Each structure stands twice: as C-alpha cells, then as structure tokens.
Amino acid sequence: MEILRVENLDFTYPDSKTKVIDDISFSVNEGEFIVVMGESGCGKTTLLKCLKKEIAPHGEKSGNIIFSGKNIEEMEQRESAASIGYVLQRPELQIVTDKVYHEMAFGLENLGLSVEEMRLKVGEMASYFGLDKVYRSDTDTLSGGQKQLLNLASIMVMSPKLLLLDEPTSQLDPIAASEFIATLQKINRELGTTIIIVEHRLEELFSVADKVMVMDSGKLLMNNAPKTVATKLKGHKMFAAAPTAVRIYQSLDVNCECPINVREGRNFLQTHFGGEKIRKSSIGNVRENIIENEKQGEKDVKSELELQICENKANTKKETSIKPGAKLVLQDIWFRYEKHTPDVLRGVNLTINEGEIFAILGGNGSGKTTTLNVALGLLNPYKGKVIINGKPIGKYKSAKLYKNNLSVLPQDPQTLFTEKTVELDLMQAIDISGEAVKKVHKEVEKEVEKTEIATTKLSQVQINKISQQLGIKHLLQKHPYDLSGGEQQKVALAKILLRNPKVILLDEPTKGIDSCAKEELSSIIKELSKSGITVVMVTHDVEFCAITADRCGLFFDGNIMSVTTPTKFFNVNNFYTTAASRMSRDIFDGCVTVNDVVNACVNNLQ
Amino acid sequence: MKSTKQKQIIKILIYILIPVVIVAGATAFGTKKYAFLSIVVMLLACVPFFVSFEKKNAKVERMLALAVLTAISILGRYIFGFIPHFKPITAMVIITGIYMGGEMGFLCGALSAVVSNFIFGQGPWTTFQMFAWGFTGLMAGVFAKQLKENKPALLLYACLAGLSYSLMLDVWSTIWAEGEFNIKRYVGYIITSIPTTLTYIVSNIMFLLILTRPIGEKLDRIRKKYGI
Amino acid sequence: MKVFENYHPIVLFIYFISVLVIAMFETNPVILGLTLLGGVLFALLLVEKKRFVKDLVMILPFMLLVALTNPLFSHNGVTPLFFLNGNAVTLEAILYGIDIAAMIMAVIYWFKCYQEVFGSDKFLYLFGKIIPKVALVISMTLRFIPLLRRQYKKIADAQKCLGMYEDKSIIDKAKVVMKNVSILITWSLENSVDTSMSMKARGYGIKGRTNYHNFKIHKMDKILLIITLLMDVTVFTGMITGNTTFWFYPEITAIKTTLLAFTSYLAHAVLSFTPFIIELKENLKWKYYVWKI
After folding, report:
1. Which of A309, A516, B57, B136 is the most exposed place for a label (fewest CB within 10 A)?
2. CA–CA dist B71, B91 (Å, integer)
3. What is the pLDDT of residue C72?
4. Using an 8 Å Cβ cutoff, are A243 and A228 in contact?
C-alpha cells in the first residue's frame, strides 16, 4: 500500500534562483526502507524537510506531497506531528530537556496525552530501546550513541508511520553507528514503520534497504532496488560512496549479479578469482610501492605491478626505515584524570617522523583523544616526556608552542570560528610578524617590484594561496556556520595552516563528512605531508586510514600496540579492519583497499 | 482580546495583593516578620512577568534563546572562576535586556537566579536575587536605545546595576539578621560589602565594554533570522 | 540512603513550607529550638559527614556574629548589663540576637535538607502545573548547562592551540575568556536551530499540552500530609490564641505552661522530627537487613 507520494515537487530558497529540488516525483509503499544518497548540497536534506510540514523550509514550493491519501498541508496538527517522525544529525542538539524520561515524553506531552497513557507508552519504548536503566538519568550523562537512540525512542513513542532520518549516524563511532542501524532495521521489521534515511555511510545500508534513491543537483537520478542502483552507479560522483563490494565489482567488468555486502563480495571473489591463489603474498608490498610510485608521478601501474612483483622481497623494509628528525616523540607517558581514577595512558611510547602521516586507531574511551591532548600540552602526564620538534613541551613558553610549530584540527571545526565571514576569520589567523608572512613577503617581492606592501595585501595573498590550495575560494564571503560539514572542515584546516604549523594533529577528521569530502581530505593530507608537514590523526575510520596513513597504531588498554604500515596492520586484524580486507581475506593476502583487491584480481586474471 | 484582559486583571490583582500581604502580615504577625514578608513580596513582584510569558504565544526560538542565555550567564561563574567574585550574570542579563527586550531581560535574570541556586543552594535569598537581576534586565530593556548607542550611558548603567544589586541584597541581609529593617545595620552591611560591590561594578564594566557589541550582533542576527 | 525524597512532591512541598513559615514567624525560643534541632539532625543523616562538619564550621562563627552584634544596633530592652560608648547593652538585645541567629540557622539547615531531598525534577513538576512554559525553559536551561560547559572547554582548547593569545596576566586571561564566551554564544545560538526543529517536529506548540511526571500518591504520602496539616493547625492555634507568643522587647515574656502551649510544643516537635525519625528508621532497618545477610 502506498503511504507517501511526491508529485512534481519543486523548491527554491528565498534569495536564490536555482531550484534546490527540481521536479521530483516518487512513491513509497508502507513498510519500505529507503536510503537516499547524494553529494552534500544536492538537496537531499531539503527534500526530507519538505516531507515534514512542521519544519519545512521557507521558500517557493510547488507540487504535491500526499501522505496516506492526504495532502500534508491539509493534515491536522496532531496527526502530522505524530505520524511523521524526524531525526536529525547531531544527537546532542536534539535533546530538549534534562531528564531521559521527560525527553521521551516530550512529544506525547505536546499531543496532550494523559499521564497514565504516557506512562504506558514511555515505559514500553524505554524497554524496547534498552533505555530503561537510564530512565531517570540526566540526558547529558548518556553516550553519543545512547543519545541518538534516545532521540529515536522519543519519536517512536508517538508511534509514527513514517520515519525520516537525516544522517543520524554521521556523528557516531562505528560501533554505535552499526547499533543504530540495526535498531532501525528492527523497527522496520518488527513494527512495520516506513523509513526514509539520508546517509553517507552506506556500507551496511545497501543490504538493509529496499530501495536506494540517488539525488544529483536537485534531481532524482535513480530510485531502484539497491542492486540495480549499484550496477548503474559507475561513472557517477556518488560511486565513491557505494559499498566496497560494489566498487570492486564495478571496477572488474565481470558478468554476474552485483554483490552489495561483504558476504556477497566474498562469494563473488571466490567464484571468479579464488582457487589458485597465485602470487598471493606479493600484493601487499605491491600496494606500498604503488603509492610510492604515485608520489613520483608514475602512471603506468600495470607494468609497474609486474616489475614490483619480481622484486617484492627486496622492498619489504619500508616501515623500519626511520627518517631522520623525529618531530613528535612521546616517551613513557603515564596519565590519569584524577588522583583516584585508573590510568588512562600506561607508558605510551611513540616516535613520529618528519613528513609522516601517522594514524592512531582505537575504540571509544581507549585513550586516543587523551594521547592527543597530552601531545598538545593540554593535559599534563604525571610521568613521561613529550618532545616536539626536538624540544620538551614544558620548555615552550605558553603560546610559543603553537606558533609556527604545532596545531590541531579539533573534532568540531566550529570551535575555531570567530568572525562573521570566512575571509575575516582566516584573516584573523594570520600572524603578521610570523614566519609564514615573511615567506610570502619574499615571494611577493620577487614577483612585484620592491615596493612597500601593505600588510592587508600580504594577508590577502596568503589567504588566496591557501584557499586555492584547499578549494574554498567560493566560500570566502559566507558565514562559517552556513557551510556544510565538509566545507567547515576545510575552512578550519585553512585557518590552522595559516598558523604555519610543522606538526598537525587531526582529531577524527572524517566525522560527519561525506565520501567525496573524505577523498578530498585524504589527498589534501597527502599534499601536506609531501610539503614536509607531519600529520598525526586520531580516527575511528579504518577505510580512511587505509588510504591515507603511512603508518598506524592501535590504541588499546592505555597503550599503542602494533605500530606498522596500514597494509600489515589491517591484514593482521580480523574485525578491526577495512571491508576490502574482510572481503578478500584468505583469497588474496595483503589487500586492504578497493584498489588493492582490484589490482589483485586483475593480476590474477592474467 | 480575552487574554490581554486577563493579563491586565492578573497584573492589577498582583499589585493589589502586594500591599495587602504587607498590611495583613504586619498586623497579624506583628511587625517583626519582615523577613518572611519580603520574600513573599519579591516573589509576587516576579509573577506578572511569568504570567505574561505563559500567556504569550512565544516562539520556540525565543524560548531557546532564553534558555541558552540563561545557561551561559550561569556558566559564567565557572568560566570566570579564576577571578574571585566575578559573576557575569548581571552583565549577561543587561545584554539580554538591551537586545531582546525588557521582558526577556527580566526572565533571564530571574531564571538565572533560580537555576543557579539549583546548583549552589536554594534559600530565602533566591527570591531577592530573582527580583534584583530581573529588575536589572527589565530596566536595560526600557533604556535599550540609549544603552545601545551611548557608551557612557552603558557604563553608568553597569555601575548602577552593580550598586543596586549589592544594595538590594544588603536589604535582605539586614532584614534577615534583624527581623526588621534597621538603618544602622544596613549602613554597616553596605560598608562591609564595599569590596564585593566594587568587584561587581568593575566586572560589569569590563564585561559590557568588551562583549556588548559582539554578543549584540549575534542576537540581532538570530532575531532577524527567526523573527523573534 | 534517602527515603524522605520518595514522598510526593506536593506533600514534601507543603511539609517544607510549614516548617519554614513557622520558623520565620515564631520568636518563641522553644519552638525555634525544636526547629533548629530537627533540621540539624535531619541534615546529619542526609549530608555527608565531612561536608556537615565543614558547613558547621562555616556557619557557626557567622551566627555568633549575628547574635553578638545585635546589641550594637538595638538598644531596646529594660535590663542594661553595661554601657558601650554611652549606649546600653541590654540582656534582651543579646537574647534576641541569639534567638534570631537560631532562626537563621534553622532556616539555612532546613534549606540544606530541602536541597538534598527536593530535586529539580520535583521542582519542575510542581511549577510545571502552574507555569508550564517557564518550567520547560528551566528544564532546557538545565540541559544546556552541561552541554555548553563541555563545549566551552572544547572552544578554549581549540583557541589556545591556535596560539594567538598571550595569557600572562589576569587581564590577558580575562580577554581570552571573553573571546571564548563570545564564540560559545555564537555556537549555541546558531546550533539551537536543531533543537527548535526537534521541538517543532514533535509537535511543540499544539494547544492542550500536558505534563508528564513519575510521581504517584501512595499511602505514606497521605499519612505524612495528614500529620503535617494536623500539626500545623495545632501550632497555629497556639500562636493565634497567644499561648506560644513570646516577646523580647521591652521585657522578656515568660514561657507559658498552659495545656494548649504544651500541646503546641509537642505538635511542633512531631513536625520537626518526623523526617529525622523516618530517615533514621529506614537506615536502621537497612542496617539490620544487611546484618542479617
């Protein structure tokens, strides 16, 4: 039965000429699970908001939205609020009240239910979502994942027929995100609730969804079963966001049904490429060398591959060769937050070299963020030494540590913004007497004749340079808060880079950004490392780590374990590893990225 | 129509009720019981503002702005913890009054008192703080135009606000310790509280000088954006 | 372990109001003494021992000051003890000072107990009925405080690591902090859009909003309510009939020993010690169970 029908929907924001939603029509049946994908700014969030009368954006709208046979404009307030639920991106900000039970009852209070009715519903939902133990707690004491579950639960108490979710897992760690998606699946299956979800993380969602909608600049490009969409995606920008199995399949030109998850992907690899397992041990090293070669600008991967395979044994020592000039050294760091709490860091030892990209992986609360804060001098270890640029951290006088030396890109880029426009904000970061400005000064002097150059001009030159490098030139006049997550990330990075750091620490750099922005970020980081900047990142994102890092280490039990190259690292791990690695395990060795698997397959076919 | 009429009636009732309570209390329980009476009077004085906020069809954004500003004014105590006696509540309340109107100023002040005492301990003084801060915000709203445009006026107001807050709470301390209002004791309290009053004044001036403009711009942007 | 907090908020509120109003209205030393003792004993059970001692050390000197300075400001009374700068220091004034100090201390202790027993959820339940919107704003404020506190820390760290500000003097520090506060305000105002959407999406603003709560009236609530009201009536009868009236000025009245006066004192003792007894009983019971295991 049809529950939602959208007919020729158009939408334009005020003060804008381009249509954000351009003639979209589709129909949704009751009980369907629909995933909407598209680049940020393609109009998917606007579409979702248009479906919910209460929060529909202001602007010029035409077309019809019919919910259960009724135009949503004509729906009664109470019915509309209760039957369509909406979950937003950031779990923290959707919570309205201070107590868990009150939050869950908030919607029912608005509907005017009696206390007895509410008690029954709230109690029921609290147990269904496993929130019964925190029923009387303060909402603020919940973890991020629990908060998002609470948001979901406080909508589910109103027994909605249609659930709209706008990137609900983008701020969660992978474990909490999987849990959240599993809960959605459960709701869909057990309660028959129709779900429309906009999401970047599609690895799991493809096999959960009944239909996938692909949007591109306001238009609905595809609206089909996941497998159909998967086969059609090649060549589109959103291909990068597709699950690993789909990307591998599409790169291989094999005639069979498209796999959409790890299990199907394994079957696919086994039937078409498994069996002989020729040359299997060589692949890992091949990859490293390919990266090396890419850096040198060599294009002919295939011939290079064969070459590398012959001499693979000779090239295995890459990670043991430490470049001279360690930039960041942690020596036997011990740390605890309070006198009587257990140690968070237990003798951490770490040496990071100049120009290296180092990733620290690890679960929630393992101490990786604490390590970052210790390295930044924000927390003082009770034992051990932090050496930045050859100088112990204590020897730096307050702000000197962060001048032309050490910088951090925080998890929340908004914490860096101070001004009304991006340009003013960047301007503010420029240290007029700083090294970077002097450098630019020299460059400008070379180009222009020796005249007095005003400092504003200098700043302009610098901002131009950095905004070109990061591709944010078109954003300079906007308010920082009006940008998308990925754009904010880049602006924040630009601000940091204007401080001319030698070592950059990144705290969860991929949180809340889409796959295209991730790819961009990865190449930016590689560029930085080429120009001699040392990058240390703390992340949950194994896929990102696999394509970006030179070395990585797992944080566990207060210490960094198994520091090695991503290839080796992810090969050893069984669960904490990339989808590509899980898929190709025991079929090919040493494959951790899509390209690895594809190369291995191509190689195997010959 | 009906609601405005109701509002008027409630307002009138309140202002009749206050003197009635004073007279009744004074005659029934003897003149010594100012402490209790003053609490009731302070509370009653806040009621019209609460009632009118209830009656108004307040926008969600307005309620959120109020909650955010109140939360920040309370957090100030923790944020500026490194300077003794530095409490930015008064300054935040003044800014709220100037840019969001007298009613919001009053509510921000009164609610700051209630909520901060959830943390630091409720007591009979809560009602005095409610009224003192609320009144500061209300007056800031009344003189919003002058305070926005005229820096000396703003500084003068900052001084007055610090002074009046201090004087008001000294009234409370006097009644509290005496059972009635003793002018000698009041003067004594004023003298002993000079250093604290001075910190209030200095901190108000500093805070308002630096932050009125930037916070005001933000509040204006929000007000325009959501039509609060 | 707290048991008294399990009572219904309305009953608790009436109880605390009764005790506090009587404490503030009465000058009778017997009644004040009972109130003070009841409050202190109750606080002893509720508050952590270390904090209790710390509080007492802070409060006692202050009370002593109130008691001793009273004769300096008040020269009423008919029994001068000695003269100070030509002013009489009377016995009445000294005693009245002590009486007032006891009253203040009693109120402070009862408020301490209130703080321990009467959580914000009870407060919001009570006022949510009378002023629902204000109560919701308070609840939202309570939700924002920890959120913004964490966000402030993040902002302060991020700004510190930009290395643009010196923080040598207290003025520098204050400037940096003000800048951070300004960032925090932008952050919270801009992002409260999400909160407002979450409220609207759940139908906030529809007429006929109700209030949810977790409280139920039990038998024990009814009993406590009846005890409280009965004792209130008795004490007030004693007050109004003049049986417990007490004056310090100009001359100290004698404490009356009529039947009604005694009944009043007894009633007030019951009122003041009820929470202490309830709490003590449960504590002992608990200890007994533990001991039996």
Report:
1. B57
2. 14
3. 79
4. no
Please judge whether B64 and C21 are an interchain contact, meaning their C-beta atoms are less than 8 angstroms apart: no
Cβ neighbours around A304 below 10 Å, total: 17
Most C CBs within 10 A among B56, B69, B75, hence the mutation to make, goes to B75
Question: Any idea what DSSP says for residue A138?
Answer: B
How close does chain C come to B142, measured CA to CA in Å? 22
- The mean pLDDT of C168-175, rounded to a whole number, is 80
pLDDT score, position B172: 82
> C58 and C116 share a domain?
yes
CB within 8 A of B75, min separation 6: which ones? C145, C148, C149, C152
Residue with structure tokens 């992340």? A539
Number of domains chain C is built from: 2
A252 and A216 both lie in a single domain:
no
Q: Neighbouring chains of A at 3+ CB pairs within 8 Å? A: C
Task: Give the CATH number for residue A157.
Answer: 3.40.50.300
- pTM, two decimals, is 0.88
Sheet holding A33-37, edge to edge: A84-87, A162-166, A194-198, A33-37, A211-216, A219-224
How does residue A321 score in pLDDT terms, banded at 50, 70 and 90? very low
pLDDT in tens, A41-57: 888 999 999 999 999 99
C-alpha to C-alpha distance for A305 and A286, rounded to whole angstroms: 7
User: Residue range A221-230: average pLDDT?
Assistant: 92
Residues A213 and A253 in one domain: no
The Cα of C159 is separated from the nearest Cα of chain B by a number of Å equal to 15
Q: Which of C189, C207, C241, C244 to mutate to test the interface with B (most CBs of B within 10 A)?
A: C189
Helix axes C49-73, B183-192, angle to 10 degrees: 130
**Considering only alpha carbons, which residue of chain A is nearest residue C190?**
A481
Pairwise CA distance, residues B115 & B120, whole Å: 9
Matching residue, tokens 């939602």: A4
What's the pLDDT band for B24 if we cut at 50, 70, 90? low
**Through-space distance between the first and last CA atoms of chain A, rounded to whole angstroms:** 51
- Average per-residue pLDDT for chain A: 85
Burial (0-12, 13-18, 19+ Cβ within 10 Å), A323: exposed
ipTM of the prediction: 0.88
- Residues from chain B that touch C103, judged by Cβ atoms under 8 A, are 179
A98 and C197 in contact by Cβ < 8 A? no
| Cβ–Cβ gap B111/C138 under 8 Å | yes
Distance CA A5, CA A24 (A): 10
Inspect the interface and report whether the beta carbons of B107 and C177 lie closer than 8 Å. no
Question: Which DSSP symbol is given to A12?
Answer: E
pLDDT over threshold 70, residue C212: yes
Domain that holds residue C220: 4-122+215-292
C140 touches chain A (CB under 8 A): yes
pLDDT of residue A104: 96
Q: What residues pair up with A4 in beta bridges, in sequence order? A: A28, A67
Shortest CB distance from C206 goes to which of A111, A139, A416? A111
Cα B130 to Cα B138: distance, rounded to the nearest angstrom: 12
Residues B114, B134: contact at Cβ < 8 Å? no
Strand partners, A506: A409, A537
Instruction: Give dist(CA B60, CA B74) in Å, integer.
Output: 21
In terms of residue numbers, what domain contains A465?
A: 414-483
H helix or E strand, kind and range, residue C121: helix C120-130
Please indicate whether, in this complex, the C-beta atoms of B211 and C74 are within 8 angstroms of each other. no
Residue A511 lies inside a defined structural domain of this protein: no
Inside any domain, residue C142:
no
